[in-house]
Amino acid sequence: MNRQCIRVDKKKGEHVRKLLMEKGLLDTSVRIASDDSCIYIPLIPAANATDLSLEDALVTEREFVMHERPATLEHMLGYTPRYEVIGSIALLESGETDLERAADALLQANPHIKTVLAALSPVEGEFRTRRFIFIKGENTTHTVHKEYGCRYAVDMEKAYFTPRLATERSRILEQVREGEVITDMFAGVGPFSILIAKNRPSCRVVAIDKNPEAVKFLRHNIALNAVSNVEAIEGDAKAEVRNYAGIADHVIMNLPHTAQEFLDAAMVVAKPGTVIHYYDITPEDDLYSSSLAHIEAAAQRAGFGIEPIATRIVRSYSPHQFNVCIEVRIQGRGR
């Protein structure tokens, strides 16, 4: 494809390319060309090359090769399906009308995706699992997900994991200081616990989960990430916290819908100064007030007060409902 271009010595090519980019004159639809001594930088059709005044550069014309742009989901389907990627697995959200067509497009558009599943259920049961249907690719629910320098092996049918909380996990990490003790009451396969342990090696992390399969993966992921400062505990957090009374600097309560039931247990591991990171699913007309009231009531039963620190919407959960995080600092002497 013939294009007007700038011919310039190779040593000055990057400087000229940046200048043309800044001025909006670089044609990015074709590839920059070169020969033994010169670079040929394509200009957009409407460019007025005479005004550029580039030293030792020549305005000329030549043939260029078009960029081969990968097909996008929008191009292939006419829309972008709702999905998330966990390791090599793409998980289509419920409500997708043509699962096979969407799966074909995902496999074609992203070479890292090897399996496409669709959710058959929300998170359910005491072990927080979901049911899936296999659509295309490799028939598996097992994968290894990479996030912020950590790797998490997970079987999605046996333990819950979502990449959509990656930013939230990183945000909590930034609040943790070296030498602190963290109690992760619903640790799952370890995304909060391991990220903190790996980046704060002098911290002690107590990671609890009731799901035996999740704890198997948690222990595997502790080894996979070569961290030695995580204690993986299989059991009900209400009972297990009795062994860790008053030690926590941070308590992570990532169990939306039912975390309220464990607030009394959280107060067992708390002490003055402890920060509670409490997650809930709340309606848009009562994002924080009711949850804060529950936290305050539990603190009072334990002889504590609370200082609200922050409230935030983590993500939209469903129409008119949101996944929120409420953070409070424990005050008072306690029992």
UniProtKB/TrEMBL annotation:
<dbReference type="Pfam" id="PF18093">
    <property type="entry name" value="Trm5_N"/>
</dbReference>
<dbReference type="GO" id="GO:0005737">
    <property type="term" value="C:cytoplasm"/>
</dbReference>
<keyword id="KW-0819">tRNA processing</keyword>
<dbReference type="InterPro" id="IPR030382">
    <property type="entry name" value="MeTrfase_TRM5/TYW2"/>
</dbReference>
<keyword id="KW-0949">S-adenosyl-L-methionine</keyword>
<keyword id="KW-0808">Transferase</keyword>
<keyword id="KW-0963">Cytoplasm</keyword>
<dbReference type="InterPro" id="IPR056743">
    <property type="entry name" value="TRM5-TYW2-like_MTfase"/>
</dbReference>
<keyword id="KW-0489">Methyltransferase</keyword>
<dbReference type="GO" id="GO:0002939">
    <property type="term" value="P:tRNA N1-guanine methylation"/>
</dbReference>
<dbReference type="InterPro" id="IPR040601">
    <property type="entry name" value="Trm5a/b_N"/>
</dbReference>
<dbReference type="InterPro" id="IPR029063">
    <property type="entry name" value="SAM-dependent_MTases_sf"/>
</dbReference>
<dbReference type="Pfam" id="PF02475">
    <property type="entry name" value="TRM5-TYW2_MTfase"/>
</dbReference>
<feature type="domain" description="SAM-dependent methyltransferase TRM5/TYW2-type">
    <location>
        <begin position="83"/>
        <end position="332"/>
    </location>
</feature>
<protein>
    <submittedName>
        <fullName>Putative methyltransferase</fullName>
    </submittedName>
</protein>
<dbReference type="GO" id="GO:0008175">
    <property type="term" value="F:tRNA methyltransferase activity"/>
</dbReference>
